[in-house]
Amino acid sequence: MRAMQTTPLTHWLLYCRPGFEQDCAQEALHQARQQKPVIATQPPIIANSGYAAVALNEQALSYRELIFARQLIRLHQTIEALPERDRLTPILAAIATLPGTFGALWLEVPDTNEGKTLSAFTRRFQPLLEAALREQGKLQNDVKLQRLHIFFPDNSSALIGASDPHNSAAALMGIVRQNMPAEAPSRSTLKLAEAIDVFMDRSEQTRLLRQGMTAVDLGAAPGGWTWQLVKRGIRVTAVDNGPMKSVLAKHPLVQHLRQDGFKYVPRRAVDWLVCDMVEQPSRVAKLIEEWFAAGLARHAIFNLKLPMKQRVAALDSALNGIRSRLDHEGINYRMLAKQLYHDREEVTVFLTRTKSY
Ligand SMILES: C[S@@+](CC[C@H](N)C(=O)[O-])C[C@H]1O[C@@H](n2cnc3c(N)ncnc32)[C@H](O)[C@@H]1O
Fold first, then answer.
1. Mind giving me the DSSP string for 181-215?
2. 225 with 117, same domain?
3. Both 151 and 229 in a single domain?
4. Considering its fold, how many domains does the chain have in total?
């Protein structure tokens, strides 16, 4: 067993969708570089591992502004060559060196097939480690305290770190799980359900998604996103040349228009624009900015597909295009983007007009 001491650098551990490790690290380094130009070494990326690490000087990372990171953890210790017969002793010894006490203990694995096989071990290990930490006074029941994360990338190593509840995802492995509703027309419905949970807190959901509101869904078929809206009592114009599933085809709150989503213009402004059309991100971004500039929608959730190699650059360019247009128009807004658990080669964006004071 070898326990690496922390260096003066700050090491960060980020979880992400497997295959997006490079994007995740690249984006974190970019965020850090905007604060201070000098960056320390970049630990090697392990392709398809579901995590990335970055080492920074004094720069802080903001979880909410990271698109590809599912979770943001301050990494304190790396243990390699964990003995199979007694993982508890070295892990407890490493935790004893960490500053402060913790409000929760999260044992985590990568979101990969190997990770799935390790989760049987973490389920067995959790009560043992938890009991030992409580006895030592390292673990308390207090949601305001930092969380302790033990991440097992494989069955012989552990990465030990802490997350700040105000600067991280409040979900194990950074995954906000959704149950598939039996009556929903498509699995895409989970993307919008997750976006609503990730981007809006409960009070904002109640305020922004109310019965009697109106929405346009561009690229609506077969209707998973429309279904999420009508189940909240929102009247939806569903625009798609493809057919809507029968549960929505004759729904009193749904009007289906077989039109091109890039040409459709509503007669009256709507509360919500949602868009899941498979198109270039720059084209979708341009469409969204046109709707907002013309005052046609107050809030939007839209998906940007990223099948290209330079995903971070394509995404930056699309989002910066929206920002500069809305700034130019003098529109106040809040925009958040995330690669959701239910997103594949894509990210989801929430854009809302805010009041000017
Ligand atoms: C990923 S699917 C949408 C799934 C949908 N959000 C759901 O939850 O069921 C993309 C849809 O966009 C539609 N689409 C693509 N380009 C379009 C366009 N220019 N105008 C209207 N619909 C378009 C396709 O017909 C397809 O049904």
1. -TT-S-TTHHHHHHHHHHHS-HHHHHHHS-TT-EE
2. no
3. no
4. 2
Pocket test for ligand 1, best of 263, 276, 286 (most atoms within 8 A of CB): 276
Domain CATH for 281: 3.40.50.150
Question: Are 200 and 145 found together in one domain?
Answer: no
Which element (helix H / strand E) includes 225? Answer: helix 224-230
For 66-108, the pLDDT digits (tens) are: 999 999 999 999 999 999 899 999 999 999 999 999 999 999 9
Residue 107: domain span: 2-174
Is 250 tagged catalytic?
no
> Residues with Cβ within 6 A of ligand 1?
185-186, 188-189, 219-225, 239-242, 260-262, 276-278
Which CATH number covers residue 87? 3.30.2130.30
Mutate to test the pocket of ligand 1, among 247, 251, 277, 283 (most ligand atoms within 8 A of CB): 277
Question: What is residue 335's three-state secondary structure?
Answer: strand
Residue with tokens 């980020």: 14
